[in-house]
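Project standup — Tuesday

K.O.: blocked on the structure for the chain from last sprint. Re-posting the sequence here as requested.
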Amino acid sequence: MIMRLVRRLGFGRNPLRRRVDRIQFAAGIAAALLILAALPLALSLGHDADQAGLTEGARESGSRTPVTAVLLADAPVSQDGADLVTPVLTPARWRAANGSERTGQVLAWPGAQAGAAQQTWIDAAGDVVSAPLTPQQAHWRGMLTSALALGALGAALAVLLGILHWALNRRRYALWDREWRQFGPQWTKYRA
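H.V.: unblocked you, prediction finished:
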């Protein structure tokens, strides 16, 4: 049972399995082991990105303030009216932290009417900024970092294995050609 498994995995002594076949098999095993060995590193990178995102979110939360802006015009709607889920820039008015009135562009849902209240975020100067990074967004950033690290390694290994496969196939074809030239004339009319 164990010997059969060993032979099926390519470790047995099979006269039909050439050196190039064993090299290709060993390269595939090495690539799989490298992916497994890189998994903790990718998870560590994701954890670091997650922690950096949480720190960034906490810093942004301390320096940004939510305010209610009043739209000065209707929020535009696309010509066909199909895109109602992407916020659009719309002129609005709001009060800065020092009490001064400010105007500018804020993100509002398409079709929002002039005079409607719109939640937005401002910095200490009263300028509109993006909302602080939430913990959930930081966690997603960490997971995405891990996935991209493993994906990049997998893609690089796939390219390397493809190049190796191409080179080994060239070697296989050369060996087959040499053997055909040697043994072909024994049972065919082929002459080199």
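K.O.: great, moving the ticket to review. Helices lie at 2-8, 19-63, 135-187. The radius of gyration is 32 Å.
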